[in-house]
TrEMBL record:
<dbReference type="InterPro" id="IPR050425">
    <property type="entry name" value="NAD(P)_dehydrat-like"/>
</dbReference>
<feature type="domain" description="NAD-dependent epimerase/dehydratase">
    <location>
        <begin position="7"/>
        <end position="264"/>
    </location>
</feature>
<protein>
    <recommendedName>
        <fullName>NAD-dependent epimerase/dehydratase domain-containing protein</fullName>
    </recommendedName>
</protein>
<dbReference type="InterPro" id="IPR036291">
    <property type="entry name" value="NAD(P)-bd_dom_sf"/>
</dbReference>
<comment type="similarity">
    <text>Belongs to the NAD(P)-dependent epimerase/dehydratase family. Dihydroflavonol-4-reductase subfamily.</text>
</comment>
<dbReference type="GO" id="GO:0016616">
    <property type="term" value="F:oxidoreductase activity, acting on the CH-OH group of donors, NAD or NADP as acceptor"/>
</dbReference>
<dbReference type="Pfam" id="PF01370">
    <property type="entry name" value="Epimerase"/>
</dbReference>
<keyword id="KW-0560">Oxidoreductase</keyword>
<dbReference type="InterPro" id="IPR001509">
    <property type="entry name" value="Epimerase_deHydtase"/>
</dbReference>
Length: 341
C-alpha cells in the first residue's frame, strides 16, 4: 500500500505527529508535512535524517496559521498526488484571554479549512484521519459523570456557549465542536473520501526524537516531568488522575485508521488504563533508584480520587479494530524518564 499512497500530515512537528511521521517513513510512505515556518520544517528534516530514517521521503509545506481561511488550499494545489490526509494540527494553549477567540474558533476553523481544501483540491484523497480527543467523548468539570460508562459513541454534553466560560472548558469545548464539524461536514457534503477520528486520553511517553529543550515538553508529559522538577524546587507536585495512552500507540492508531477498512467512519477511543500521579511516582522511585533523592514529598492522600471524577471507558470496539496491545504505564513512564535523563 505504501508505494502508491502519499500522506499529508498537518502540524507535522507536534508531539504525536512526529511519531506518526517516523512510522510513515519506516513503512515507506512518501510524506508531506505542514509546518509553521521553514525553520521548523528544516529542523524536523534534520531530526529524521539524524534518526537514520528515509528523510528523502519527507518534504514540508508552510502553513503559518491553520485558522486562516483557505489555509491548506495552496498546499493541496501543489500536491495533487496526496491520497491520505492526517489532520493532527490543533491550537493548544492555556495562555488564553478569550476562550472563543483563542481556542474555539481556531479549532473549528482549522478543521473546516482542512476539510474544504481536501474537498476542493484533494482530487486523489481517499482517506482522512482527524485527531480529536477524549475531551470530545466524556464530560469534565461541572459536566463530569463519575462512574458512568462511556464508549466510542459517547459525546461530551458541553454546549458552545458553556465552552466560552474559561480556558479549561474552552479547550474541552474546542475538541468537541471541532470534531462535530468533521461529522457534520461528512453528512452534508458526502465526500468521496472516508473519515476516521482518533480520540486519545492523556498522552504519555517519550518524544519521537532526542529532547534538546526539556522546558518545552507536551502538556500531558508535564505530568511525569513535574514530579522531577517539583523535587528540584522542593515543592509538592500537582497530582493528576485519569486514563492514559502511550504516544507510540496513538501514532500506530493513525496508521491503522487509514490502512484498515474496519476503521472507516469510526471514532477510535484510545485509552489503556486508569493512572494517578502516585503510581507514576512509585515507578520512578523503583526503576530509577538514583533519582530517589531528587524526588519530592508526595502525600498520595491529597491526590484526586478516580471514583470522584472519572467516567469508565469501554473501548473494546477500538481495541478490536486496532488489533494491537497497548503499551503499559510502567514502560511509558520508564521510556520517558530515560529520555529526560
Amino acid at each position: 500500500m505504501s508505494s502508491e499512497n502519499v500522506v499529508f500530515i498537518s502540524g507535522a512537528t507536534g508531539f504525536i505527529a512526529q511519531h506518526i511521521v517516523k512510522l510513515l517513513l519506516e513503512a515507506g510512505y512518501k510524506t508531506i508535512g505542514s509546518v509553521r515556518s521553514e525553520e521548523k520544517g528544516e529542523n524536523l528534516k534534520s531530526l529524521l535524517k539524524s534518526a537514520g530514517l528515509k528523510s528523502d521521503l519527507f518534504s514540508y509545506v508552510i502553513v503559518k496559521d491553520i485558522g486562516a481561511k483557505g489555509a491548506f488550499d495552496e498546499a493541496l494545489k501543489a500536491h495533487p498526488e496526496v491520497t491520505v490526509f492526517l489532520h493532527t494540527a490543533s491550537p493548544f494553549t492555556f495562555e488564553v484571554h478569550d476562550a472563543e477567540r483563542d481556542l474555539l474558533k481556531p479549532a473549528i476553523e482549522g478543521t473546516t479549512n482542512a476539510l474544504n481544501a481536501i474537498k476542493e483540491y484533494g482530487k486523489n484523497v481517499q482517506r482522512v484521519v482527524v485527531t480529536s480527543s477524549y475531551a470530545a467523548v466524556a464530560g469534565f468539570a461541572d459536566l463530569v459523570t463519575p462512574g458512568k460508562e462511556v464508549n466510542e459513541s459517547s459525546w461530551n454534553p458541553i454546549t458552545y456557549d458553556q465552552s466560552k466560560a474559561n480556558p479549561f472548558v474552552g479547550y474541552i469545548g474546542s475538541k468537541k465542536h471541532a470534531e462535530k464539524t468533521v461529522w457534520k461536514f461528512a453528512e452534508e457534503n458526502k465526500p468521496k473520501w472516508e473519515i476516521t477520528v482518533v480520540n486519545p486520553v492523556y498522552v504519555l511517553g517519550p518524544q519521537a526524537f532526542e529532547v534538546k529543550d526539556k522546558s518545552k515538553l507536551n502538556t500531558s508529559n508535564e505530568i511525569i516531568n513535574s514530579i522531577l522538577t517539583a523535587g528540584k524546587k522542593k515543592e509538592e507536585p500537582q497530582q493528576y488522575v485519569g486514563y492514559f495512552i502511550d504516544v507510540r500507540d496513538v501514532a500506530k492508531a493513525h496508521i491503522v485508521a487509514f490502512e484498515k477498512k474496519e476503521a472507516i467512519g469510526q471514532r477510535l477511543l484510545l485509552a489503556d488504563a486508569p493512572f494517578n500521579s502516585g503510581e507514576i511516582y512509585d515507578i520512578i522511585a523503583e526503576d530509577f533508584p538514583k533519582l530517589k533523592p531528587e524526588l519530592p514529598e508526595l502525600d498520595k492522600s491529597k491526590g484526586p480520587k478516580f471514583e470522584d471524577s472519572e467516567s469508565i471507558i469501554n473501548n473494546e470496539k477500538t481495541r478490536k479494530i486496532l488489533g494491537f496491545k497497548f503499551i503499559d504505564l510502567r514502560k511509558s513512564v520508564d521510556d520517558t524518564i530515560a529520555q529526560l535523563q
